[in-house]
Design brief:
heterodimer; A: about 400 residues; alpha/beta; FAD/NAD(P)-binding domain; 7-stranded mixed sheet; about 30% helix; globular; B: mainly alpha; two-stranded antiparallel sheet; about 35% helix; about 5% strand; binds flavin-adenine dinucleotide; binds FE2/S2 (inorganic) cluster
């Protein structure tokens, strides 16, 4: 069995930052990622943050070049971790390579986030993809997802990806809403979709920003959004069409059209549906953490009714309720890459404390990294979902209670 | 093509919402887990990685307790059958527990 001090699952910003911090101190680290290229979601990120550009690929390259200076850190790409088992105060980590499982004294789970699908009739046709897939096509592989598309849903990535597609020279028919759910069918109401507008409004053009306080009030929100012109309002290089829903996607062998219909202020369909020609459709149902490995390893969890907010209970340095198991990045909630990096730093402190048996060691580092986390949050260009702040407070309080009792 | 009736909710198992509704009304599952076992929702090759959130949002009527969430069990990623076979031979794999 191959033996290492720390096994990191996920070579995104959180995992790589932690590996860099640990490697700097000569700790033996193996980073496993199932993707053939390291960098996680950084690889596709491209946006303007204030007066500078955030080019995720460059951030990833910088991290990897820092890491290459630490011979104690190894990268294993193209392999998925399928399970963890605690043994002899360490961990046996099983992967999909079929080779010997790895033994590690501590494990960091930095598995990131997954996209939530939106199911509308025709969503299995070739040419329908999530916004994240379109982002990877355009920014990572430099391939146009199509000639003319439409984005369905107001996930936090809708505006970012609309803008990126625009830069890639792809035409969009706009951002439209998912259809209102019928009789128990899984999906969110139009009202829920509209509510997301309020905290995305800071991304809107300057003239629209004063409206964001009005968008927080249900009555105004309905009036404003239902009253928008059918062609939409200009946002992020495309048109936001809050009172238009996509009922279905059509095509024989691939997407050829989307069926749209008008929504009234109550989020109900009104008038006659019509078709618009598109050759691809992006669904944007938002993101959720991927906590599967933490749950399977026995870490105490926080669960939510729709699974969107399922996260492990965690402490200030990414500790879980299981000794030797740490977490960082989007597995804890959906935030930007700078936050994930700060969480990776904090987890490296938790791991060092564990490895060296000094539960109160590295105080100055922990304080400094906690400040950097707060700073990263303050300057975040995008608040993915404001619900996370309250959930984090609850989860960290639950963690304190659980570990005090346990 | 675009019949609402044929809305696919699990791509791997090609399961439609229609079939789910029928299963709910005819077999009256009382938890998501029962619904899953009846319909194979989330039991396809991706093991629910795509459809899990849709399933979590589905309303199962008449469930006695609210605690019907879906459990996670290893393997957390699709693996080759051979790996399972080897694991059994070495007896390192934990026996599958019921949720
Ligand atoms: C589609 C998508 C687009 C995004 N776009 C943006 C954006 O434009 N701007 C922004 O600020 N944020 C964006 N985010 C949020 C993004 O998650 C964070 O910015 C940041 O990348 C999180 O870092 P992380 O290290 O936690 O996870 P990630 O960067 O997601 O890295 C996790 C890594 O873990 C690997 N992994 C997961 N499970 C396993 C396993 N079992 N075995 C092996 N490897 C595994 C994955 O392959 C991945 O490389 C996006 C997220 C998604 C999902
Ligand atoms: S989509 Fe349901 S199991 Fe894959």
């Amino acid at each position: 069995m191959s033996q290492t001090d720390v096994l990191v699952v996920g070579a995104g910003p959180a995992g790589l930052t932690a590996a860099q911090e640990l490697g700097r101190r000569g700790i033996r680290v193996t980073v496993i990622d199932e993707y053939p290229t390291a960098g996680g979601r950084l690889l596709g990120q491209l946006y303007q943050a204030g007066d500078h550009w955030w080019v995720g690929r460059q951030v990833a390259e910088q991290l990897l070049s820092d890491i290459s200076g630490h011979p104690a850190v190894r990268l294993r790409l193209g392999t998925s971790v399928s399970g963890l088992e605690r043994r002899d105060k360490g961990w046996v980590v099983e992967d999909t390579s079929g080779g010997e499982p790895a033994m590690a004294r501590a494990v960091l789970l930095a598995t990131g986030a997954a996209e939530i699908p939106i199911a509308i009739p025709g969503w299995t046709l070739p040419g329908v993809m999530t916004v994240g897939a379109a982002q990877v096509m355009a920014n990572v592989h430099r391939v146009r997802p199509g000639q003319r598309g439409v984005i369905v849903g107001l996930g936090a990535l809708s505006f970012a990806v609309a803008q990126e597609l625009r830069w890639a020279g792809v035409d969009l028919a706009g951002i439209v809403m998912p259809p209102p759910p019928r009789n128990g069918m899984p999906g969110w109401t139009v009202e829920e979709e509209w509510r997301k507008m309020a905290h995305l409004a800071h991304l809107a053009p300057t003239w629209m920003r004063p409206l964001s306080s009005l968008l927080r009030r249900a009555g105004w929100r309905r009036r404003l959004l239902a009253g928008a012109p059918q062609a939409g309002v200009a946002v992020a290089g495309t048109r936001l069409r809050p009172n238009v829903a996509a009922l279905a996607i059509e095509g024989d062998a691939a997407v050829s059209a989307v069926v749209l219909q008008r929504l009234n202020g109550h989020g109900n369909l009104v008038g006659e549906p019509w078709r618009e020609a598109v050759d691809f459709v992006c669904t944007s149902g938002g993101l959720r953490p991927i906590p599967d490995l933490a749950a399977a390893a026995g870490a105490a969890m926080h669960y939510s009714w729709d699974g969107r907010y399922d996260v492990p209970l965690f402490g200030p340095c990414g500790d879980t309720t299981v000794p030797g198991l740490y977490v960082a990045g989007n597995i804890l909630g959906i935030e930007g890459a700078a936050v994930a990096m700060a969480q990776g730093q904090l987890a490296s402190v938790g791991i060092l404390r564990h490895l060296l048996g000094k539960p109160d060691g590295f105080g100055p580092e922990a304080d400094q990294f906690a400040l950097q986390l707060a700073e990263a949050r303050r300057h975040a260009p995008l608040v993915f979902d404001p619900a996370w702040a309250a959930i984090h407070e609850k989860v960290m309080a639950d963690f304190q209670r659980e570990t005090r009792e346990g | 093509m675009s019949k609402t009736e044929s809305l696919v909710v699990c791509r791997c198992e090609n399961l439609t919402w229609d079939e789910v509704e029928r299963a709910i009304s005819e077999l009256k599952p009382t938890s998501l887990r029962q619904l899953k076992l009846i319909t194979r929702w989330g039991m396809g090759i991706c093991q629910g990685r795509v459809c899990r959130s849709l399933m979590a949002m589905a309303e199962v009527p008449d469930h006695a307790e609210r605690d019907f969430r879906l459990t996670v069990r290893p393997p957390c990623k699709p693996i080759r059958m051979g790996i399972l076979k080897d694991a059994e031979a070495e007896e390192v794999g934990e026996p599958c527990q019921d949720a």
